[in-house]
Amino acid sequence: MANMSSIPPEYAPIIRNIEEHHGHLLATRYVTAAGAVIALFETVTSFPDELDLIWKGRQGFERTVFLVHRHIVLIGLFCAVQTGLAAVSICLMDGLVTLEVWQLWDCNWKMMRWMLSAFILQSVTTLGFLGGTVKTILGTPGGFTYTDAIQSCNLGVAPRLMAGSWASGIAFEVFILACIILNVLDRPRASHVRLTRLLLRDGCAYFIGVIALRTVNMVIAITSPPSAFFITTFGTWAVVTTLVNHLIINQCRERQRLRASVFLKGDLARIPSAALVSETYEMTVAEPANVYVQTTVSTHTDVTTDAFPYMI
């Protein structure tokens, strides 16, 4: 802390401003570094599960999205290109959660249309507010400046539009959480009880964490000075990414267990042959001249049809 008594009065506000900027800069660095450590630790400790459940699992859309999302946060945090990648990562993360909840609805396309509409609206709104934020910073004189005293670039204006991006994300998470609760109340299923319970457990942790962190970021975006604008942003990104990765891996593990328990094809390619269930029915067929013939019909059902056709 500078000795303010030895500083000319006209320079005191400048010194206080520099000290405030420096404190916020250090806080941003430490929180971002903590987020990077959390993301890296989660990636390393869960890699065996990732290798077994994802890389050795079947190929598909969700698998690709998961792998891109899982590693994009590390690229962004360690290569210092967070802003653009964070926006992409948030959209991918919300898409993964939407797919998981859709599976809980037995791939109901009517429900998917509602969730997809909400996802598109949220993504467009988030990107729109982010674009408005960038435009505000670049379009305002002194909106982004370099301070020699602390050797850092700093915001000269607080882009309050960013709060809209966080608010749209909160609204989307509340909608998806409502879809999960509605599913549990309206569509109980004995075969997926454990899968549902896991999604509720991990999903509740995810939604509580995401809504809380996004609320904190929204409040900071509304009330904080420009220098404190990004203190929690990238740390939040890393923590939320960790939560959604944990959610997806746990769901994949349980789906693999369910596939194995009913002899379904899927991740377990080592199952040697299709399992057939045979059933016999007796039918009475009307023939001409009012003659009735009784016959036996046998059916063979291939139970290798996957109960989770769109998931890892």
From TrEMBL:
The keyword Transmembrane applies. Residues 30-75 form the DUF6533 domain. Signal peptide: none annotated. Keywords: Membrane, Transmembrane, Transmembrane helix. Coiled coil: none annotated. It holds the Pfam family DUF6533. It comes from the Eukaryota. The chain crosses the membrane at residues 72-93, 114-134, 166-185, 205-222, 228-249. This is DUF6533 domain-containing protein.
